Amino acid sequence: MAKTISVTLRIWRQDGPNAPGEFVVYQVEDIPDDASFLEMLDILNERLIARNKEPVCFESDCREGICGTCGLMINGQAHGPQKATATCQLHMREFKDNDVIVVEPWRAESFPVIKDLTVDRSAMDEIIKVGGYISVNTGAAPDANLIPIPHQTSSAAFDAAACIGCGACVAACPNSAAQLFCSAKVQHLNLLPQGQAERWERAEAMVEKMEEFFGSCTNHGECEEACPKEISIDFIAWTNRDYVKSKLKRRIGP
Amino acid sequence: MGKAKGRYHEVSIVIGSLNTHTPEGRLAEKWQNYQATVKLVSPKNKRGFEIIVVGTGLAGASAAASLGELGYKVHAFTYHDSPRRAHSIAAQGGINAAKNYQNDGDSVWRLFIDTIKGGDYRSREANVHRLAEVSLNIIDQCVAQGVPFARDYGGLLDNRSFGGAQVSRTFYARGQTGQQLLLGAYSALMRQVGQGSVTLHNRKEMLELVVHEGRAVGIVVRDLLTGEVSSHSAHAVVLATGGYSNVYFLSTNAKMCNVTAAWRAHRQGALFANPCYTQIHPTCIPQSDEFQSKLTLMSESLRNDGRIWVPQKGSDTRPPSEIPDSERDYYLEVKYPAFGNLVPRDVASRNAKSVVDEGRGIGERANGVYLDFTDAIAAQGEAAIADKYGNLFDIYERITGENPYKSPMRIYPATHYTMGGLWVDYELMSNLPGLFVLGEANFSDHGANRLGASALMQGLADGYFVLPSTIGPWLAQMLGESKLPADHEVFETTETAVAQRTQRWLNINGTRSVDYFHRELGKLVWDNVGMSRSRPGLEKALSEIPALYEEYLSDVRVLGSAQTLNQSLEKAGRVADFFELAQLMARDALEREESCGGHFREEHQTPEGEARRDDDNFAHATAWEWTGDPQKSIAHFEPLDFTEVDLAVRSYK
Ligand SMILES: Cc1cc2nc3c(=O)[nH]c(=O)nc-3n(C[C@H](O)[C@H](O)[C@H](O)COP(=O)(O)OP(=O)(O)OC[C@H]3O[C@@H](n4cnc5c(N)ncnc54)[C@H](O)[C@@H]3O)c2cc1C
User: Fold this and answer.
1) What domains are there in chain A, each with its CATH number?
2) Do B509 and B405 belong to one domain?
3) B311 with B402, same domain?
4) Is the ipTM reported for this complex over the cut 0.95?
5) In which band, very low, low, confident or very high, does the pLDDT at A250 lie, cut at 50, 70 and 90?
6) In what order do the strands lie in the sheet with B278-284?
């Protein structure tokens, strides 16, 4: 049978967006170490309900590290201690018996707390809305093999496209900047031949929309560390380049 | 051409009729003919029509985006915080299309035949043919959107093969095909949101369909953050709300997937077809303990290179590396030499169950079979295998703590997909006029079993290419009509009912949590309406589920309030709908006295244990009408006419 461990949780509880919040301490005994971190919280919640206490509100959906719904600050680290791992994929075997674990929501001005560990990340959609696409109406596409794309190019675009939009990069950044999220989408599309027609407008529109909501990047690199999909900060440099080029082009014509 | 005899059923339907509205003409020409003659709505008039799309998965997002591009006024709803989170995001393996880029003899016809055969001759021929035709456009569309499909070193698109096919027609994006396709559809959707043609309603859960004078006129939703209940009216309502695998509690679906939208529509008169057709996926990580919250799928594409085996003798506790080849049973390769490890899902699943039931299961709980990559790594090198399956291997290791490059994976079947769903005609309209159903939520294209990589294809076919044409005639006849005002009495009464139902869960004040009941329900359904079904088991389900439901209604404990985000409260309503659906599934499984696809009745098998279909009596889809009691639902039948296909015994030997 699997081993079990007991841990002390200090969890941020907050009733609503405008309510004051506080840390509440929960002692959770006998958690199988095969359990995922979220299954541990499920067990806690079942025990809370049994004691007539409202369960802790946290979000998750696929529990396979791909939908980007979950995301907790665990001991001050976005998604916790395991590298390249979303919260739902973190397992209790990463912790020791009697560990104290601090669990908080993403902390960022642009991600207001909704309840307990749940935050509002809709600002990220705003960035996509202004340019995170290639303008091609349904039915207008040429044959898929018309334009060969070198393996390397498509692979680099994929590395950027792997972003799951969880917001860990924003939460980890001391300035709450969203550069990694934004540039991952900009570069996914700007690297591909299909994305060239709108390359410059895209870079400008998305970067400027991002700046309306999020802080500025001062090259800490915390975002890359926290990213569960290991998206590289090189994409930020490339996006800055595209942005500056676009501004120049505008000034001097194409 | 062989034609199914089929039992002829008089269709006596109170609400609407089971006319499939399949166009005339030869199979291969039906869709072209349809498109050439279908009623159109002019660009100017499109702006006068409002369409509600519930769901922003592959089917919903592609539909909402395409309808928006055409000029309709679209309202897209999702209970997620962003359209990008829909469960489609988790699909791993790939998407089929009959491009024949590999020159291996593929064609629209072959994809059509494979899908019909894979579905065990229980799907509608004309829909499936259209799906195969449209598959070509899907890949073009996705590539143009920037979906980074796998490519070979010449820069052209790569393919892999998938279960139930002898050609390589599956397009893939590492092990994240669903993610990349959904992000493509999501980006198209967000573009329309930016342009104002689509209005997005995030974190809104549809809790009722509103029907007035026999047609769908809108929906009532609850804002998941504030609890506010509101009405939304439109000229047409489109449901693209996914499947119901979570009736089993443990499944490979995302935790929030549920049947509520479809079930509420069913209760309002939409027929629910073939609920017993559920698919068990052969390659999932076996359950490790009681607390488990969901099961993780390992893409079936792994069966391209992995070899499935168990020890020849039972209770063999040696580590796999110490079991010599001569003492292993590669049971699929032995039994099905033509398809080997690539037999369809139901066949692979049942065979896994039977070797485990024989006591030859592996792992600590003897609840799995091996999927072994040793030979593939030796032949192709670790780098090539990592390139194809790297992220799947990582997922596996993260969950189990075992490294599949070193020792074989342990796998076992789990519930994965539901072929049943709301009944729709050729135009994807349900029997309720004005209600359209797309993607996994409908019953249309996969018959009794879905082939791998075909759900993504169907979702995108429905949303990008089919609905934008087929919604035309419905709207065209309403030209100049305004939608029903959202403060009409029928909306007000529905809102009140929804608010009361929500409050009801809070008032029960029982002793056990929603999850407790959901797990118990799941066990009942898995044991009796799961991979293998029998009359006694189904009768047991039909008597025990209502008993448990009674307990649920009097003893569930939901804390907190209805005016804030309250996840237990959301689940309470969804689980109640699962309780009703589960009974209909058992009833449907009981009435279908044959084995076909994912529906295996122990009473109906060959001496070798293969499924035995009964085409004389069951070559039909069963569409159930709600009566107020799921055990007393009324069955209606759509006979399945096969005009150009010979009904054959499915054989993968
Ligand atoms: C792990 C896994 C892997 C898979 N891999 C593959 C694969 O490789 N190839 C393949 O072809 N298929 C695969 N499938 C199947 C495929 O992913 C699904 O069938 C398909 O994505 C379903 O898409 P959909 O658009 O119909 O629904 P979904 O993607 O489930 O979307 C449902 C949408 O409806 C919304 N919704 C539901 N109910 C409500 C409500 N009441 N109110 C408001 N909104 C609501 C949700 O928010 C969501 O936006 C896989 C499935 C799983 C579980």
Assistant:
1) 4-115 (3.10.20.30), 121-252 (1.10.1060.10)
2) no
3) yes
4) yes
5) confident
6) B278-284, B409-418, B369-372, B307-311, B328-329
Q: Tell me if B399 and A120 make a contact (CB, 8 A cut-off).
A: no
Ligand 1 binding site (Cβ under 6 Å of any ligand atom): B 54-60, 77-80, 86-88, 90-95, 177-178, 205-206, 240-243, 252-253, 257, 260-261, 297, 299, 416-417, 439-441, 453-456, 459
Structural domain harbouring B509: 489-619
Contact in structure between B263 and B626 (CB atoms under 8 Å): no
Q: With an 8 Å Cβ cutoff, is A13 touching chain B?
A: no
pTM for this prediction = 0.95
Q: Comparing A72-86, B60-74, B116-130, B388-402, which segment has the lowest mean pLDDT?
A: B388-402
Q: How many domains does chain B divide into?
A: 2
Query: Using CA of residue B369, residue B374, residue B379, residue B383, what is the dihedral sign?
Result: positive
In a domain, B174, yes or no: no
Rg (chain A; Cα; Å): 21
Is A129–B191 a contact, with Cβ atoms under 8 angstroms apart?
Answer: yes
For residue B548, count other CB atoms closer than 10 A to its CB: 16
Q: Which of residues 487-526 of B touch A (CB under 8 A)?
A: 513, 515-516
- Look at B516 and A46 and tell me if their CB atoms are within 8 Å: yes
Residue B548 lies in a domain: yes
The single residue of B169, B345, B410, B533 carrying the catalytic annotation is B345
Last residue of a domain, one of B373, B388, B415: B415
- Which residue's CA is minimally distant from atom 2 of ligand 1? B91
Say which CATH number the domain at B603 has.
1.20.58.100
Read off the pLDDT of residues A51-108 as tens digits, 9 standing for 90 and up.
Answer: 999 999 999 999 999 999 999 999 999 999 999 999 999 999 999 999 999 999 999 9
Closest CA to B162 of B335, B310, B339, B309: B339
| Residue B586 belongs to a domain | yes
How many angstroms away from the CA of A49 is the closest CA of chain B? 7
Number of CB pairs < 8 Å for A and B? 207
> Within this chain, do residues B500 and B391 fall inside the same structural domain, yes or no?
no
Residue with the smallest CA separation from ligand 1 atom 33 is B55
What is d(CA A59, CA A87) in angstroms, rounded to the nearest whole number?
A: 10
Active site residue B612: no
Please state, as a whole number, how many other Cβ atoms lie within 10 Å of the Cβ of residue B264. Answer: 23
Q: Please give the Cα distance from B319 to A32 (Å, whole number).
A: 24
Q: How far is B315 from chain A (nearest CA, A)?
A: 18
> Which region among A30-34, B418-422, B586-590 has the lowest average model confidence (pLDDT)?
A30-34
> Do the Cβ atoms of B193 and A129 come within 8 Å?
yes
Instruction: Answer yes or no: is B123 within a domain.
Output: no
Residue B138, Ramachandran bin (φ over 0: left; ψ between -120 and 50: alpha; else beta): alpha
- Binary contact (B468, A161; C-beta < 8 A): no
